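User: Assemble these into one structure.

Assistant: Restating your components, then the assembled model:
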Amino acid sequence: MRLATLRDGTKDGRLVVVSPDGQACAPAPVRTLQEAMERWDELAPQLAAATNFPDPLDPAQIIAPLPRAWQWLDGSAFASHGELMDKALGIEPIKTDKPLMYQGTSDRFYGPTEDVRFPSEDLGIDFEGEFGVIVDAVPMATPAADCMKHIRLVVQINDWSLRKLAGPEMKTGFGWVQAKPPCAMAPFAVTPDELGDQWRNGRVCADLLVDWNGQRFGAANGEAMGFGFHELVAHACATRDLVAGTVIGSGTVSNANYREIGSSCIAERRGIELVDHGEPQTGFMHYGDSVRMQGTLADGHAPFGVIEQKVVKA
Amino acid sequence: MRLATLRDGTKDGRLVVVSPDGQACAPAPVRTLQEAMERWDELAPQLAAATNFPDPLDPAQIIAPLPRAWQWLDGSAFASHGELMDKALGIEPIKTDKPLMYQGTSDRFYGPTEDVRFPSEDLGIDFEGEFGVIVDAVPMATPAADCMKHIRLVVQINDWSLRKLAGPEMKTGFGWVQAKPPCAMAPFAVTPDELGDQWRNGRVCADLLVDWNGQRFGAANGEAMGFGFHELVAHACATRDLVAGTVIGSGTVSNANYREIGSSCIAERRGIELVDHGEPQTGFMHYGDSVRMQGTLADGHAPFGVIEQKVVKA
């Protein structure tokens, strides 16, 4: 099952069920995805029962499947990304045996083709290609094995980042506020079964194809997560209940063979350049630049659709 | 004007206007405080016009004035608190000329008398007495001077903290997830004019009386903030729009003469003990412990009402 949300003038939009070919949709028996997450056990069978898709799906009307969420907790579960970011940001390697995770702003997620506004070009504007999951209500202290069944939907995310602010904010220990403005989501939130056997061990084992200004920049695979999403959910709920509709992110998708397959963010490439050449060579994004991201299965199918955003002046 | 929210079976409750003596209330012309924040210019005059308070105000029905918010960004604006926390948590002193701020969980705020549940007594359970503000919509990159007018309401907050998790999370640079479960809010959200001349320079210049198990623990004054709330709002909105109803916290209220007036959290007292005796002597909270917090003006009036919560097993 694939779900999308259409622009309707409200902040939460209107939920629809998407046809297998992604060209048409059916009205959902509930107004918003947030409401569907809150009543998932009751509503999922009704959503999945749609076989008739009477309405053409207009890409221009698609906003983020969950246009705002009560919680967005983003992990950093790819070891090769972490190592390169320590270098790129000039911070000491982080020592912990728990997942890395921060709480981000969730009052809005940009739609898949929405321009992203920044007040300056000098902040180190960077994309971050990620996968994520949306859970139903998870009680406090649920163990990882039991968290798997709370993962109801899988999404694809662009976690916009401002790198010149990121290192200094990390050094305070308080995490990121200014360095992490709102993220974007790809058009379709999908049930894990849509990924077939490329949903394994709580991981999205798909390639994330990333293009910057039309040039291939990365094609890392999501299987390399050091912790599965169920373990990230367990980390998040250790001392709090997770409200239905909480979004949990993987962190930037990254593989150890980054020299061959590239990266899902610019900062990581700069970390590689620092290692190889003693200094970063690639600059950050400028106004007018675009980024395209497409999670892709082995058969070429793109279950989440495509994120394609342009950077503009606020 | 003082506003409260009453339990009505929904997550956002029902907004009421509170009488000057705090004993009665009038229905609001809008259902929730979130909606009032979104339409503040239009609704504030109607809310302020209430002169007839027909309904008795039952304290047992009062929940947090804003029971959930789209964003909760908490500062740490009291220098003496920061210095003691560096010692208590065993971290290097933080070097920055910007406000310290983290993004916390905002999908629920406990009501003023709601029990707070934790999965273990061994996590270093601690209260943190704070003041906070609620803003209407603040556009990205609004300068501090212009942020003042977006501060529509002032609140009092108990920022529950789990200290044994806090130091390790800080050291990752990602900020706090497990160490910062949901906060509580005092009964009344008040317009700044309710504080008279004790609202100055974007600061709540009131004493925060904190009692732990019935014993006075602290009476620090909110005037000592190193940054005013308008400056905290400007920090928060530097690279993002702030949605109406965003809550911004002061961080633990703390004064340099802490040996005389005490502290608004246990960790700070432990920091003092570490300095004075080489090791902390005061333990953290246990199941069954209670904490009471009351922001108090010079004339003895408590505009926010009282937080009084008990710690229980999850």
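Chain A touches chain B through 49 residues (CB under 8 Å).
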